[in-house]
């Protein structure tokens, strides 16, 4: 059964990778020169003639990989496509800086970076001098403002748009795309459409894109803030809009990557089950606390940690709120482990084999699953500046997940106990945000990442714990994976005082 399951998982992984790589066929993807320290990728269709440039910018905590559905779609349509990592994101070694509350602060710096990339792209021999910008979420405001600056844009595609820079006349040829489940952003798209025609509705076009007077707002069905990037509607609308602006016609199929990426990720997670079954087996019972002891161990750290840290301003890591999160995880983990010690749960948890099993878990999560993420979803390979961030986060993440694993008996405890532990931690972070909303607002963005981590990696940790009877092995390994995941994905920021 184990071999059969592993074989099926490997076949699905190979099929998904083959399908995803087909979308790159006929394209040359290479670094773009002339962008300074900004990492940028140039997408060119082999044999295509000179064409307009499309500069693609990702949103907050994103990277070039996240925007690749648009890059591949437009490159296959013959456009000269450039996608890049903003300062503080992905492979970019330069941290974000400036005042995030001022248009003349961080926004201006990101606009300058976008303009620098656009000028480098326009200098390419395949560029015909025309230019469009496409941006998602945070970048929607950046590209709209940059289109009104130098070099100006002949068209703008704003995905999940919010921007106060839109007027009835500017920017020219604006297409606003939102996911159907992004209610507020859909209303914002409709608002900017009605600036040109108060009677216009979603799905209608006002003006004429061929005469630089076009504007359109559409919704992609059944998707949210990230899913919109993989939506066939969003990809087709973006390509068709640019074709209308530049007088082009495209017949190439739109790459449907979302389903294949989901299958690839799920198959990679599934491969962890037969791998876990190959570990040394132990049927010895894992110690579990009584009901009263469990509730105290689950709830006391969740309440005390945010209250104890509320008076302190923590700034020692160059990543937004990562310093607070590292300390929160560490305090929470230490308190949990103290309860584990008092309840007698630590005895026998750390034989020598626990550490090599922990290493295997970390390698699978970072190298195997992380390698898939880096290729097809989002940046997962750190530059040198992120190494201290990962190390700092590990000092908190390892004790936190070690305590979590021991209290849940490595997945052998009743399911409701695991759910209580996860919900208690999420509630603890929510309480921290409530106590300092302005300072810790960006923790809200981390919460979905942590939920996804619990669902995927928590499942794999349970397989390891139930097989080996060593909760500590899974806890240590997953702690390293969590530290890496947050350390490579959240933006680096150089604070100004």
UniProtKB/TrEMBL annotation:
Membrane-crossing ranges are 254-273, 294-312, 324-343, 355-373, 385-407, 419-435, 441-465, 472-493
Has the keyword Hydrolase been applied to this entry? Answer: yes
Enumerate the Pfam families for this protein.
Answer: Hydrolase_4 (PF12146)
Q: Which UniProt keywords apply?
A: Hydrolase, Membrane, Transmembrane, Transmembrane helix
InterPro entries under this entry? AB_hydrolase_fold (IPR029058), Hydrolase_4 (IPR022742)
The keyword Transmembrane helix belongs to this UniProt entry's keyword annotation: yes
**Record-annotated Serine aminopeptidase S33 domain positions:** 50-176
Which superkingdom? Bacteria
- Name any one GO molecular function: hydrolase activity
Query: What is the protein name given in its UniProt record?
Result: Alpha/beta hydrolase
The organism of origin for this protein: Roseinatronobacter domitianus
